[in-house]
Structure formats: structure tokens, C-alpha cells
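Example record used in the benchmark description.
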Amino acid sequence: MREVNLLDSYPRSKRPIREREAARAVQREVAKQFGREYFDGDRTQGYGGYRYDGRWVAVAHRMREYYGLRAGHRILDVGCAKGFLLHDFRRVIPGVAVAGLDISAYALDHAMEDVRPFLVRGTADRLPFADQSFDLVVSINTVHNLDAARCADALREMERVSRAHKYVQVDSFLTEEQRETFERWQLTAVTYFDPDGWRRLFADSGYTGDYYWTITE
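Model output (C-alpha cells):
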């Protein structure tokens, strides 16, 4: 189990924290439905328009090199949304097999056409895949949307369906100021800790994969 930032190439944008905080009481419930408003509605409700722009290509390259991925390997994205990362895995690793899971019917209905046949609707704590089905299981900013018990179950599920590598990224904070900023910004996270708290949950869940943090600044 290693702390490694495999999204270090992913661009960071300026977040309108004050605007979202002002609307948070109403918009949080809207966001947790993970429908059109969350993905393609106003920025106070979620992404403010979740559209493909190629920014996941560098992440796919990074993971390919880090994990030695090649044609024939199987990759699962837990919380795949519209399938952008899976699309880019197929671009940078010809011959790779992909699968994705998301709770959002809206996201799956609007997923990229080339990966849509490989996506299923479901929850991270009950993956509909056989044991040791995948060479890499990734989950980026997803499992923290479950309560602590279900979050632990989701980590166990990642272990169960992986035969090799796992990578999870979750919301966290390094300082009290970062925690306060995160709580002003976040809409959907239910479980969140500082890094030590997450490491305890990883250990208690038997999670052995790699991990990193999404820090709101």
C-alpha cells in the first residue's frame, strides 16, 4: 500500500467556493441525486458541465507506466461517470479491456459511445463482478460518498475483484483550514478524514492498494 499521486497531471481549476457555500443547503440534496443537475447543471450543484476535453489522457498514460498495463489487461473504474478515463485508457493502451460502474443513470446514458457497452449501473459497495476479474481497479472521488461502513465495504470489494493493482483517491485535508474549506465546498461526501484517519480505515478494511488525496484549496 503506497501513497502516490497518479493524478498529478490533472489540471486544477479555481473553485467558486463562496457561490457554492451560499447555495449549499438546497444544492447538496440536488447533487446527491447524481442526475443532470450534478453533472451538467449549475456549478453550485456539481460539475457545472462535465464534458470530455482530453484531460484524462495524461492520467491514463501515468497509470499505464506506473502499473505496466498492456493489451489484454482488464481495468475497472468504480464511479466511472461518463467514462472519460476508460475512453482514454483505450486510446493509450490499444487492446486493453475496460469496465465501469456508476450509480448515476444520467451519467451512463450520456457516456462516451465507445465505452458505453462496458458500463453498468450499481454501487461501489456491491460490485457485480467476479473475484479477481481485473488487473487494475481504480476509484477516484467516489467511495467517500458512502457512509463509513459502506465505504469500508467498497474498499473490500475493490480488493475482491482485483487480481493485481488498486488505486483509490478520496477527499481529505492536511490542516484545519483545509478541512473548513472542504466542508464549505463539498456537496456529496459523507465520509472524510485526514490522511491518518483514511489509513486506519484502509487497514481496517484490508485494503492493500495505492491511494492519494483530493485536497480542496
